[in-house]
Structures are given as structure tokens and as C-alpha cells.
Design a protein that fits this description.
mainly alpha; 236 residues; globular
């Protein structure tokens, strides 16, 4: 079941530029304590981002991403210390709600032209970092930010991939400093590496063929289905 979850999460992430943690974390949380889940998810996300560097490095404007990355680092470091004290039920509920927030944000965020406000990247980076450190799901704030500020699927996907490379690295450093990285997480990570490679290649091929036509529809459907299921499980 872990392999299936990681494979599906990898394909979604490689197709849309986001979504790995949104799919993987809720499933992993059914089998592991929260601290193990966030460490494993961050390690796998970091590996996927490294694999994807050739596909986004020439598209991303790293100068514009400085506020996002700086605030993400701060938010991640502050929130990472709370992971060890989050009860499992609350952890799952936070995951489900964050997924639904991301889904609603994508559905509603359809302005006529990209929004350009100086405060927006600073706020999005901080919120994303806080969610990254606490529950290993940095996606919702930064996904909404991408949908509001970049309408081209290729550039939006590239920005998200670059951001998640940095945020997953920040998370791993923060978890190591907080002392929650254990040998069991390393074993699970090595167990899933083959699936990461296969899913990543398949996701990139699907985007090359269907990305512009299906990008938004795939993202909305996946987020809605996952958000509803994990929230109901946490509440019932």
C-alpha cells in the first residue's frame, strides 16, 4: 500500500509540479507516527525535486522566488519543533483540511490577469513554511499563490517544482536539528526509491503529452477526492 501511494503521489507531482505530500502523507499517516511520516515524505519529495531539476531550471526566475524561499525557511524552522507533540487524529485532520483548502483555492483563483502584490510572496512563503514544518505539506499556500500569479502551466509547474526542492530541503534540515530523524524512516525511504524513479518518468511523459489541456482539471479532481476522504476519516 505504501508503494501504491508513493507511485500515485509521484505521478501527480511530476505532472502538476505539486501534490506529492498531499497524496502520500495521508496514506502514510495510516501506518506510521506523524514524526516518521513527515521525515519520509520530505526525503522523498527532495529526491523527486532533484530528479526534476533539468525540466524546470531553465524556466524558473530564481530572483523572484527569493521572498518565497526566505519566508519558507523561517516558517519551516519554527513549526518543525511542534511535530513530536501533534496527536495522530489531529495530525490527520490537519492534513485533510489543508488539502481541501488547496482545492478550494485552485477552484476559486481565476482572476482575469496575474496578481502582482509585493506582500503576496512573503505571506505565501511563511504560511507554506509553517505547514511544511508542522505536517510536511507545504503545498496549499504556494499552490494558490502560483495559480494567482502565473497562468502558464509550464511556468507555474516549474516554479512549484523549484519551491518544493527548497522547502523539502529546509524540512529535512529542521527535522534533523529537532532530533526526529530515525533509522526506521531511512529504511522506508530506501524501500520507496525505485517507485520514485518510475513514477517520476511516467509523470513527466504524461505532462509533455497532456499537460496544457488537463493540468488544472487533474489537480482539482485529485485534491478534492483526497481532501474529502482523509478529513472524513479523521472525524469519524
Amino acid at each position: 500500500m505504501i508503494w501504491v501511494a508513493v507511485f500515485a503521489a509521484t505521478i501527480l507531482r511530476s505532472f502538476t509540479g505539486f501534490g506529492f505530500a498531499l497524496v502520500a502523507v495521508p496514506v502514510l499517516a495510516l501506518f506510521m507516527p506523524p514524526a516518521e511520516v513527515v521525515v519520509l515524505s520530505s526525503a522523498m519529495a527532495f529526491t523527486l525535486s532533484l530528479l526534476s531539476v533539468p525540466s524546470f531550471s531553465s524556466v524558473v526566475n530564481f530572483q523572484e522566488m527569493k521572498p518565497l524561499l526566505l519566508m519558507s525557511l523561517i516558517g519551516t524552522a519554527l513549526a518543525a519543533w511542534t511535530v513530536a507533540w501533534i496527536p495522530l487524529d489531529l495530525f490527520q485532520l490537519c492534513v485533510g483540511v489543508s488539502v481541501l483548502i488547496a482545492c478550494v483555492g485552485i477552484v476559486l483563483s481565476r482572476p482575469e490577469k496575474p496578481i502582482r502584490r509585493k506582500s503576496l510572496p512573503w505571506l505565501a512563503g511563511l504560511l507554506s513554511g509553517a505547514m511544511n514544518g508542522a505536517i510536511a505539506i507545504p503545498g496549499p499556500p504556494i499552490i494558490i499563490y502560483a495559480m494567482l500569479t502565473e497562468f502558464d502551466p509550464v511556468r507555474s509547474r516549474a516554479m512549484l517544482m523549484a519551491f518544493f526542492l527548497a522547502s523539502s530541503g529546509f524540512a529535512l534540515l529542521s527535522y534533523t536539528a529537532a532530533g526526529i530523524v530515525e533509522l526506521q524512516s531511512v529504511k522506508y525511504y530506501l524501500f520507496t526509491v525505485p517507485v520514485l524513479f518510475v513514477g517520476d518518468r511516467l509523470g513527466h511523459r504524461l505532462f509533455d503529452r497532456y499537460g496544457r489541456a488537463l493540468y488544472r482539471k487533474v489537480a482539482i479532481f485529485a485534491l478534492a477526492a483526497l481532501g474529502v476522504s482523509i478529513t472524513l476519516k479523521a472525524l469519524l
